Amino acid sequence: MFSGRAAKTDATYLPAPDGTTVEISRDTYGVPHITGETEAAVFFGQGFAVAEDRLVQLETYRRSAEGKLAEWFGKSYLPLDQKMRTMLYSFDERQATFRSLSLPLQTMIESYASGINAYLDSIAVDSAHYKPREFAHVDLQRWTVEDVVAVTQFTTSVFGQFGGEELTRLAELETNGRPWFESHRPLNDASAPTTMRGEGKRAPRAYHYSGMKVQLEPVRKLAERWKQSRDLIRQIHMPLKFGSFAVLISAEKSSSGKAMLLGCPQMGSPQLGQANTIHEVELSCPTLHVSGMTIAGMPGVLIGRNDRLAWTFTSGYSDNSDMYIDSTETASYSRYYYKGTWHEFETLTDTIYVEDKATVFTHYRTAHGPVVGADLENHQVFALKTTFRGSELDMLQSLYESARAQTMERFEQALVLNPMSFNVFCAADDGRVHYWHIGKYQNRADGIDPRLPHRGDGSEEWAGFIPFNKLPSSDQSGQDYFANWNNKPASWWDQGDNVPWMGGNHVTEIEDVIKPADLFSYEQLTAIPEKIGDHGTYQQAFELGAGPWRSQNIVPPGQSAFVAMGGEPNSHTVDQWSLHSRWQFKEMRFAAPWNAQQNWIAAASFGNSQGDMSPPVFSRLIADRYLESEYPMLDAKARPHTTKSSALKTRIILPN
């Protein structure tokens, strides 16, 4: 299949906060390829590059995660801000989360925030060239580690949390009766297509329900508020869920004898005039080499490849959230009953600004989690308990370890850390493939029907979690290909209150393309989106084994969303749209392993014994100095968006 090539074009050199140098080179599609001597340097470069490309997206995601959208968008966004403040965390909690992280993750987050701030410094130097026109009259705040934590918590929750619809299910049961309920909301629909074929049988389980009743009106109001929040998120082009389809072909099924992977995460259809949710990047240093996609505000790489492995995710849709009905002492948020005694609510009071007017918002938590709704007249509050609350950043640790893994075994060990609900597909250059359904799930040993609410008095507490090695998982020894479109992982895997797997699923369209072929080619793999008539928000395809990989991807309409104050768009805002329209991919540039890259360090070193720059080159570099900001920035002679490069096509920033 024809594809666009992504050759290296120009480069920017930045002094990282740890005193080393980072190179940001951009290929012909504007994708940043970031090389440094340390992880701190490359994550600093990633922060700078994402700010250069997606500053509006960064700020929108930060405000969403921290419940500050009404400051920009007005009163209509107050309900969404209130929901985010309720469901997520306070500044002090985010700060505590950061302090609890491993040192590599702290370094990642600190460096990433510093890189964003370095770009903000360039706006202060020359806003005409660096400031997006959307921010013409906006003073942007600097980023903190707590901001990065907030966006990561928000992103992982949006894409990896499922369930919490027990009140709606209970209302359906009370309205329609048990026969209707079991027919339309079954625990396990044997007719639903699965990713693992012929793997095990479901063990019958007996569940019960306490018999608690709810009034329909409070349930209706809660569902209406949540729908309103989803509608508001759509209006500002933020992703709601991580849908996606994926295909994994074993070496035995591949016509080349090499493993193949197709990953097509779906977070909204690509649109002209609208930034893609995905930001592509390559990161390379002696301890980390990874390339692929991530979300603005979340450092590292979510889906992509390293030197030995390629992987992708689809949302798992398995139930990891339960609604508890807690009983109040009075018709107010006075006290609630739990384990034989009355307890004070945890009360949180926030100030939310609606444009420039302050509004006080009070919300509550019980032992089970944030209170998301109430029927105080009947002394009931509804608290949402999730398996991952307080551990959302474990997913970032998992992604970091996955990127560093060089074997399937190490990759699997990294997945154990991820508490969110996902399907994961991995291919290795030794020909092996593996599929996992991952996440942290209640083991249901409490005996409560997972479709219905739990009683909050302490009598129906969770008994434990399903061990990782008991989750759905299979490799090439079990079957020669895997296909998923958020469908059921295995026949024996039950659904929860969200009831995602009922009857048919469009994964059968993918199966119809793959199954008839005795052997499947890379060309057939990359043709799957067109065959099924659907795109990913981002798409990647790999054929990997001994020798060079085939490696392609696409981020339509383009890598950048920058439009200068004068109205000039970056040249990479729409340059992938024509490929997208023709169902094509571009080449995915991936650097040689680190030991083949080290020469650039000497060439970019400043005033040390490693660098031996000739006077003509050094004189061109010194002309691009800017010495006054916290991190030396580009000046107008080296504009990242309208660069007139030298013969070497190099932009450089020198330290003081």
Throw out a few tags for this protein.
26 strands; 656 residues; disordered C terminus; seven-stranded mixed β-sheet; alpha+beta
Description of the molecule:
The chain has an eleven-stranded mixed beta sheet with strand order 21-19-18-10-9-8-7-4-3-2-26, with helices on one face. The chain has a seven-stranded mixed beta sheet with strand order 1-25-24-23-6-5-22. It starts with a strand and ends with a strand. The protein is α+β, with helices and mostly antiparallel strands.
Distance between the termini: 49 Å
Radius of gyration: 26 Å
The number of helices is 18
Query: Would you report the number of β strands?
Result: 26
What percentage of the residues does DSSP assign to strands (E)? 15-25%
Low-confidence stretches: 599-656
Helix proportion of residues, in percent?
A: 25-40%
C-alpha geometry: globular
Helix/sheet category: alpha+beta
Strand numbers in spatial order across the main sheet = 21-19-18-10-9-8-7-4-3-2-26
Largest sheet: 11 strands, mixed
Can you give the mean pLDDT?
88
Helices and strands in order:
Layout: E1 3-4, E2 8-15, E3 21-27, E4 32-36, H1 39-66, H2 70-73, H3 78-87, H4 91-100, H5 103-125, H6 127-130, H7 145-160, H8 166-176, H9 178-184, H10 216-235, E5 245-249, E6 259-264, E7 278-285, E8 288-295, E9 303-305, E10 309-315, E11 321-327, E12 335-338, E13 341-344, E14 346-354, E15 357-366, E16 369-375, E17 380-386, H11 393-404, H12 408-415, E18 422-428, E19 433-438, E20 454-455, E21 473-475, E22 481-484, H13 507-514, H14 522-526, H15 528-532, E23 539-544, E24 550-554, H16 577-581, E25 585-587, H17 599-604, H18 615-622, E26 650-652
Parallel strand pairs: 1-25, 2-26, 4-7, 11-20
Antiparallel strand pairs: 2-3, 3-4, 5-6, 5-22, 6-23, 7-8, 8-9, 9-10, 10-18, 11-17, 12-13, 14-15, 15-16, 16-17, 18-19, 19-21, 23-24, 24-25
Helix pairs in contact: 1-5, 1-7, 4-7, 5-7, 8-9, 11-12
